[in-house]
Amino acid sequence: MINGKRVAVVMPAYNAEKTLEQTVRELTEIVDIKILVDDASKDRTASLSRRLGVQTFIHNANYGYGRNQQTCYREALAAGADIVVMLHPDYQYTPLLVPAMAGMIASGVYDMVLASRILGAGALKGGMPIYKYVFNRMLTASQNLFLGVKLSEYHTGFRAFSRELLETLPLLENSDDFVFDNQMIAQAVMFGFHIGEISCPTKYFEEASSINFRRSVQYGLGVLGTTAQFVAHKLGIRRIPRYGAAGRCVTHQAEDVSHYTELQPESFALAD
Length: 272
Known about the structure:
Layout lengths: L6 E7 L3 H9 L7 E6 L6 H7 L3 E5 L5 H14 L4 E4 L11 H9 L5 E5 L5 H4 L4 H18 L11 E4 H6 L11 H11 L4 E5 L13 H22 L25 E4 L9
Parallel strand pairs: 1-2, 1-4, 2-3, 5-7
Antiparallel strand pairs: 3-8, 4-6, 5-6
């Protein structure tokens, strides 16, 4: 808890068994709620999460990264979180920055905080492939121009959010795939929320989840599409539900949640 605000860490997971325990170990005492959503992994991610005492939800099919996040945020809000930090359980990002990111939200200055791999020149040092770095810089420059903001990157998977933002953005209108992350930032800009950044080291290794070159190209095209729709909606050329106040939010009462179930956590302590 920070400044009287309950902090939740949500972990969208797929085949994260090898790195999950190390990630959970490094979550500090300021975290009040730990939630993992398993997107029909083929390994023992869900059972390990349960053993570690994490509130665990399982999708009945592999719906994708974006749908996973929708479940994460819906359940975090239902659990009473005031601040929600989204952290990948593949240990690519350090959990030690959760208090700093949550504190930036708790201050009331920011509604969204992005852990940037670009600030401090940590991306290439951490092993980011050159082609991903180049794509990152090109896409970021393009979006800064058309969205009218100045961020160091739009593509990090380590973020923090206020409850108000998560209750406001029409997240159910977003993609089920990886471009969900980018769409969420564009939505935050459209709705006038304040975005801050913090420098974050990153690590690329075999167990860390990462999309291949083909999926990276698909993601890049999705980012360009997100930007084009943002401009079209803002100029009144076309109404895009993703950017409108009438879009569906994760707190939408009519949303069907029958595609996932909860595992009750066991009372096991982390092994020494």
